[in-house]
Design brief:
The protein has 8 helices and 11 strands. By secondary structure, it is of the alpha/beta class.
Length: 244
């Protein structure tokens, strides 16, 4: 199948999410993720899977000298160019596996909710390490392994539709899982916590922060957001290339 974000029905449903309508302010993880960003003044930034371009614009607004946002979805890039145009930001329709990752080029590589679509996670880690300058930061948000190991990524409910619990199955079996996302069947990749973190260490990174995202109190009235406190949905990681 093609990129799900280029599917008209899915794209329109995605556009109704709070993070799509409100930008970073509508993203439950943003309060935690923002604190993990390094100083962006004068930085060269690469955004892997930039979506609407919110993080690209944030980087430019906070002093980044140049920002490149790539995404495999042409629709997403169209939206990024419309919503988050900036003279120091450029966007390209390009998948993570297809980008060239020029060596020693960026001070920050950021990726938000994209890596769980990638099968060869360590391959991307190695390329990111190469494209960072010594001392550069890799900051990403990936769906939590408890979430990706969920059965269809849906809650177990009673006959009246009330949530009972979040089922987890086949945790130690990495690979493709078919998920129910916004009422659409979407393939994602399940990676264990060991794969996510040890893969970074094997690639040469130094871990600096690992956090499990929790929605802030001011967003708990958003439909479904309070239930995000019942199990982790996202894993935030900051690591750094050595200063060799």
């Amino acid at each position: 199948m093609g990129n799900i974000y280029d599917n008209e029905g899915f794209f329109q449903d995605y556009a109704q999410m709070s993070r799509s309508r409100q930008g970073l302010a509508g993203a439950g993880e943003w309060r935690q993720l923002e604190k993990l960003f390094p100083d962006l003044r004068g930085a060269a930034v690469l955004d892997l899977g930039c979506g609407y371009g919110w993080h690209c614009q944030y980087a430019a607004d906070h002093g980044a000298s140049e920002v490149l946002g790539i995404d495999a979805s042409g629709r997403m890039i169209e939206e990024a160019r419309r919503r988050c145009a900036h003279p120091r930001v450029r966007y390209e329709v390009l998948g993570l596996e297809d980008y060239g990752y020029p060596p020693d080029t960026f001070d920050l590589v950021v990726s938000n909710l994209v890596l769980h679509y990638i099968e060869d996670l360590e391959g991307i880690y190695r390329r990111v390490y190469r494209t960072l300058r010594p001392g550069g930061v890799f900051l990403f948000n990936i769906e939590h392994p408890v979430f990706t190991a969920g059965v269809n990524q849906t809650w177990a409910t009673d006959p009246e539709g009330r949530i009972l619990h979040w089922p987890v199955d086949r945790y130690f079996e990495p690979g493709e899982r078919m998920t129910d996302f916004l009422g659409h069947c979407v393939p994602k990749q399940h990676h264990t916590l060991t794969q996510i973190l040890m893969g970074l260490l094997r690639a040469g990174f130094c871990l600096e922060a690992v956090e499990e995202a929790q929605p802030p109190e001011e967003l708990l009235d958003v439909p479904g957001m309070a239930d995000e406190l019942r199990r982790p949905m996202m894993l935030l990681v900051r690591c750094r290339r050595g200063g060799e």
